[in-house]
Every structure is written in C-alpha cells, then in structure tokens.
Model the fold of this input.
Amino acid sequence: MKIITCIKQVPASSNVQVDPKTGVLIRDGNNVKMNPFDLFALEASFELKERSKDACVHAISMGPPAASQVLYEAIYMGADQGTLISDRRFAGADVLATSYTLSQLIEHIGPYDVVICGKQTTDGDTAQVGPEIAEFLGIPHTPYVKEIIEIKEHSLIVRSAYDEYEELIEIDFPCLLTIDKGMNTPRLPSYLRKRKMKDTLVKIVSLKDLDDQNPDHYGLSGSPTQVDEIFPPQKRTETKMIKGKKSDLAKAFFDVLKDNRYL
Done:
C-alpha cells in the first residue's frame, strides 16, 4: 500500500507579517512549525502502514525551500520519504490553486492507494484543500475521519464524525481521507530514526517537473479568489467605567457588545 500524506509548515504564533501588496502571509522559515492537524494525519498514516503489508508513507508539502524542515520532521517520525513542491510561481496561491498544485504533485509521484490530509490548517482554517485535491484527482474522499476500522483488499472502512452524527463508510482505493484531531496520539520524532535516516534527502519538485506547466494555473494567476485584507487582531487593555441604574447599565452593556460586534 502506498500512502501519500499532505503536511504544511505554518506560523508558530499569531505574530506574523503580511505582504501589503498581495495580502498573503510572509513565510521566511522563522518562527514556524508543522500544522498541528497534520500530526494526526501522519500518525494515521503510520498506523495504517503498520497494519498493512509492504506499505510506505510518502510525505509531501508545498512551500518555500525552508518548508522542507517539516518533511524531515515527518521522516524522523516515521515517513519513508518526502517531496516538496516549491517554485516562486506558486506563491500567493489560494485554496483552489494550492489544491491543484498538490494534485499535480501527487500525479507526478505516481500510483498511490490512499492520500491522507489533516482536517485543516491553523493559518487558513478552510478545511477545503483535502476535498479539493480529491476532486482534481477524480477520486472518492471522506472528511473528518476519526477511526480506520478495517483494511480490505480494495477499500477501507472508516468512521467519520460530524457535529450531530457519525457515519460508517466503505471507500474504494484510490481515495483521500481527512483526519480529525483526537483520532490518535501523534508520536514524536525519533533520535535513533534521525540517525538511521540521516542520508535521506527531501526531493524538490518545481513547475517544470509537472505535466501541466502553464503558470497561469498556479499561484496568484491561478487563484480565482484574492485576500482583500488580513491583519492580526488588535490587543486592547483599556477599561471603561459605567455608572447608573440597573436599566441604564444593561443598555450600556448591550451597546458595548453591539459596537464590538459580539452581538
């Protein structure tokens, strides 16, 4: 079984810079970490590998060259290999362009049985990339997976958890799953494995390596949506004292909540 796991490098804190022209986050390789939701996806991949015969886990990511750090982390956790798709022409991609780029990378890598993604990322929170990759690949997908119940010869039986109900699904290979947090306990990178895999290199793929080399399909050019404005929330500590009768205090409190868009 060949398992491809999508991971991403995200800002490690809310203190990030934004490009004033493009409205996208500036990713310089500092103060970054692996997307927390992807840790659960990796662990699900490793457990699936351990329950299968002759299985391998191939971790992939999209980003600047510095994003290879999370792929090495994935290898030290248990992935067999890693590939980064990186090109300046991919910069500024929205959800659709990102999904298309990753689908092109997956097709470039070759035959696979399962693609596994985290539920969402902490810098975008759309939860759309995984399903859109599946749509571009033309394969079935199941979101919010909380358990892989059974591995069959040509399919998986999984349990997906939604807000008010759960669903048992049998999904044929090749397929895509998005993994919800809490499905498992992610393992830590192994020092012994790091020494064992020290000569393993992350492969770098660029636009020229893909079947579709039209730059208009990637990055800002291939993004039908644009960020109008992005900014960190303002932290304010000022206080306002309100005095008066109960009815006056209630109305004043209501006005404060309404003015600050809590109501």
